[in-house]
Amino acid sequence: MLDGDPELEELITCPEGILEHLEEYGVAIVRGVLSRTQCEDGLRSILQHQSKSDAEVNDTGIEGSWFSQRYPFRDDVLLPYDLPTVSENLTQILGMIASPLMELLGEEAMCTELAAHISQPGAAPNSFHRDHRWTQSRQVVSCFTALQDIPYDLGPTEVLLGTHKVPGSVENKEASSMKDRKYTQLRLRCGDVAIMDARLIHRGGARPEVLRDGLPMHRVLFYTSWRDWCCNAHNDDYTPSLLPEYVDRLPLKDSATWCVSGPMARRYPFRFQLFESLKGGASDGLGLHPFEVNEVQDSFEFDDVDIDDIPEDAEAMEEAARGIMAI
Ligand SMILES: O=C(O)CCC(=O)C(=O)O
Ligand SMILES: [Fe+2]
Question: Distance between CA 110 and CA 227 in Å, rounded?
Answer without folding.
Answer: 5
